[in-house]
């Protein structure tokens, strides 16, 4: 199978990327050192090509009602243009089909950004549910998507944006501004300040080169993963999937239960699970000592076994951290991880490890 | 293109071996191996004084990506380990053939070295795996 490539493919090669298959796309894993790229985002600024994610516009008189049925969070909470909402998209069993960000662009106009691996299924699901007489679903495959993240991201990116979009620097987190072809959102996946920028693919390379010239470091998907894990954000496909509900994945806060008459897909299953009791929970773990927790590592608790859903070395903290799904009844502050056949103590923490470059684990 | 060195011997499992003047053998992982692993974050070397068996795992290198066993290229007694790597595992990435050495073995059978690959044969092996 031929791998898909983004508009920045040759720019990645020039920057020395080690390219790997990522959900059918040939994407940069790193440009020499994942650790250095990780640190650049925590200490200065880095840019990621995330054009493999899909931008989907949902428009029409029925768009709002459609999204209120499609998503577990409620787009009616979006009160002003440019505001963004994080939500899960569920199946009837309450399993997570994908997690996404949806932006309000106008009265009857929304934009969603979905994951690369799930994009095709997501779009088919949306099309099957939307009434074409009132909802238009348009896949914006001609747009590239760059994320610039880090404490210096705003100052280094603003001068490079089209003049009318520089107000993005004054917007609060989870807000976006746009003109015809560009959209600049104050969102991201690293726990740092920064932007996600949607722009015509033909323009992406010149912005990329300008960012590099301004001292922004190219960062691969390897560091993106360690950054998001430190930020305590779930990764679709490992920390949640169609077999887990938001309630067992630490995402109960993204489910809008009110108003009670909003019949979103998966609602009945979630209400049943809430009434019966949620069997598992997703917690943060810190490994005491040397070694690295990895996805699949068994975690022993006093209430039964759990498993690491995603784990890695934390470059900021210098120890291994993980998200793990464990029995909800487990209350111990220290559990046991079985690493390569040996037991190791792990400390249970709130699953936010690093925010704005600072340790959150005490 | 990864680097190989003509003064070293190599195992099929991507360790290199250098013969020292006192007859001991220094062991590390190759440039090719460190490139594949990515940034190392922990190195667990064998205990000094312990015996290692050719072809058996005796050390572990962990990168951000994965944990990998290091196999003893020859049998013998571990006479030194690179203590530097406890705090600076990145030396293996920066200097796999020099500062990033892992441990030193006094071989039980000096002929064990002959069973290993020379630089050309190792380069061929790497090319066939790429």
From TrEMBL, chain B:
Cofactor requirement: (R)-lipoate
Gene for this chain: gcvH [H]
Organism from which the protein derives: Thioalkalivibrio nitratireducens (strain DSM 14787 / UNIQEM 213 / ALEN2)
GO BP terms in the entry: glycine decarboxylation via glycine cleavage system; protein lipoylation
Mitochondrion among keywords: no
HAMAP family per UniProt: GcvH (MF_00272)
This protein's UniProt keywords: Lipoyl
Subunit and interaction comment: The glycine cleavage system is composed of four proteins: P, T, L and H.
Organism classification: Bacteria, Pseudomonadati, Pseudomonadota, Gammaproteobacteria, Chromatiales
Residues that bear N6-lipoyllysine: 65
Function text: The glycine cleavage system catalyzes the degradation of glycine. The H protein shuttles the methylamine group of glycine from the P protein to the T protein.
Protein name per the record: Glycine cleavage system H protein
Residues in the signal sequence: none
InterPro entries registered for this protein in UniProt: 2-oxoA_DH_lipoyl-BS, Biotin_lipoyl, GCV_H, GCV_H/Fam206, GCV_H_sub, Single_hybrid_motif
Chain ranges of the Lipoyl-binding domain: 24-106
Cofactor note: Binds 1 lipoyl cofactor covalently.
Family: Belongs to the GcvH family.
CDD domains, A to Z: GCS_H
Gene Ontology CC annotation, any one: glycine cleavage complex
């Amino acid at each position: 199978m031929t791998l898909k490539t983004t508009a920045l493919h040759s720019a990645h090669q020039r920057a020395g990327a080690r390219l790997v298959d990522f959900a059918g796309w040939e994407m940069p894993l790193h440009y020499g050192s994942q650790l250095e790229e990780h640190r650049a985002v925590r200490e200065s600024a880095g840019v990621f090509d995330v054009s493999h994610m899909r931008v989907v516009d949902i428009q029409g008189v029925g768009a709002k009602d459609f999204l209120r049925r499609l998503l577990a969070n409620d787009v009616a909470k979006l009160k002003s243009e440019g505001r963004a909402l994080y939500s899960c998209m569920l199946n009837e069993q309450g399993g997570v089909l994908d997690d996404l960000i949806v932006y309000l662009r106008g009265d009857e106009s929304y934009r969603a950004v979905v994951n690369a691996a799930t994009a095709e299924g997501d779009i088919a699901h949306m099309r099957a549910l939307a009434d074409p007489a009132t909802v238009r679903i348009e896949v914006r495959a001609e747009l590239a998507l760059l994320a610039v993240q880090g404490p210096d991201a705003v100052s280094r990116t603003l001068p490079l944006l089209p003049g009318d979009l520089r107000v993005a620097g004054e917007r609060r987190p989870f807000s976006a501004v746009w003109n015809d072809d560009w959209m600049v959102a104050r969102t991201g996946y690293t726990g740092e300040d920064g932007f996600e920028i949607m722009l015509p693919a033909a323009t992406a390379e010149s912005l990329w080169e300008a960012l590099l010239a301004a001292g922004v470091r190219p960062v691969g998907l390897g560091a993106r993963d360690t950054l998001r894990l430190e930020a305590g954000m779930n990764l679709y496909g490992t920390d949640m999937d169609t077999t887990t509900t938001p309630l067992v994945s630490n995402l109960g806060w993204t489910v809008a239960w009110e108003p009670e008459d909003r019949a979103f897909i998966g609602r009945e299953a979630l209400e049943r699970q809430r009434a019966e009791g949620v069997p598992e929970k997703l917690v943060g773990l810190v490994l005491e000592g040397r070694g690295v927790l990895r996805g699949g590592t068994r975690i022993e608790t006093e209430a039964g076994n759990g498993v690491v859903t995603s784990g890695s070395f934390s470059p900021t903290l210098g120890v291994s951290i993980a998200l793990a799904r464990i029995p909800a009844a487990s209350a111990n502050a220290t559990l046991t991880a079985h690493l390569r056949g040996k037991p190791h103590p792990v400390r249970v923490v709130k699953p936010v490890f690093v925010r704005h470059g600072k340790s959150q684990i005490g | 293109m990864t680097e190989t060195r003509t003064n070293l011997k190599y195992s099929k499992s991507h360790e290199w071996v250098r013969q020292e003047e006192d007859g001991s053998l220094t062991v590390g992982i190759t440039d090719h191996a460190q490139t594949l692993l990515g940034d190392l974050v922990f190195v667990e070397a064998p205990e000094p004084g312990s015996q290692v068996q050719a072809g058996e795992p005796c050390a572990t290198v962990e990168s951000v990506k994965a944990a990998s066993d290091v196999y003893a290229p020859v049998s013998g007694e571990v006479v030194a380990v690179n203590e530097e790597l406890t705090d600076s595992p990145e030396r293996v990435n920066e200097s796999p053939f020099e500062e990033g050495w892992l441990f030193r073995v006094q071989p039980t059978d000096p002929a064990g070295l002959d069973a290993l690959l020379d630089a050309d044969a190792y380069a061929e092996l790497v090319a066939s795996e790429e």
